[in-house]
Amino acid sequence: MPDTQTELNDQQLENALAKVLISGVVTAALIVLAGGIVYLFRHGDSPLSYSVFSGESSGLRGIRGILKAVAAGRGRGLIQLGLVLLIATPVARVAISLVAFARERDTVYSVFTLIVLVTLVMSLVGWRF
Predict the structure, then answer these.
(1) pLDDT tens for each residue of 61-98
(2) What is the pTM for the complete model shown?
(3) Distance CA 92, CA 71 (A)
(4) What are the φ and ψ backbone dihedral angles of 2, each rounded to 5 degrees?
């Protein structure tokens, strides 16, 4: 006979994870949209050169630089912040899952989830293994 308390906890966990994913994606999309509007408002009439690719400046490749750009009201900073949030959303989901499995004392799932979390974090910060 299934344990209703466990089923309830599993359902609550799935609902919480769904809310994290939905709110993270929607928030990221709204931030990117706001950044795009700010960027187009300030630079929409600038001439474009499609023959030369220029990536983001080094200042927008780290969290500190992104936050400075956001504080300065720069559209590119907002876009980058939204993209960072979009990337962080599934990482947060894995972290929440790890906490839930650890609270249930489910060692196997906790270990595998920890491996996934460590792998995600290491790939995001650029560590090689």
Answers:
(1) 788 888 998 999 899 899 999 999 999 999 999 999 99
(2) 0.77
(3) 24
(4) -70, 145
Nearest to 77 by CA among 26, 39, 125, 23: 39
Distance CA 57, CA 36 (A): 17
User: What is d(CA 31, CA 100) in angstroms, rounded to the nearest whole number?
Assistant: 29
Structure tokens of 80? Answer: 């980058």
Residue closest to 28 by CA, chosen among 75, 74, 88: 88
**How many other CB atoms are there within 10 angstroms of residue 57's CB atom?**
10
Its sign, for the CA torsion 15, 119, 116, 96, is negative
* Site of tokens 């200042």: 59
Would you state the structure tokens that stand for residue 29, as one six-digit string? Answer: 């999309």
Distance of CA 114 to the CA centre of its chain: 18
Closest CA to 79 of 46, 43, 107, 45: 43
Closest by alpha carbon to 22, among 93, 105, 117? 93
Return the closest-CA partner of residue 76 out of 86, 85, 84, 66.
Answer: 66
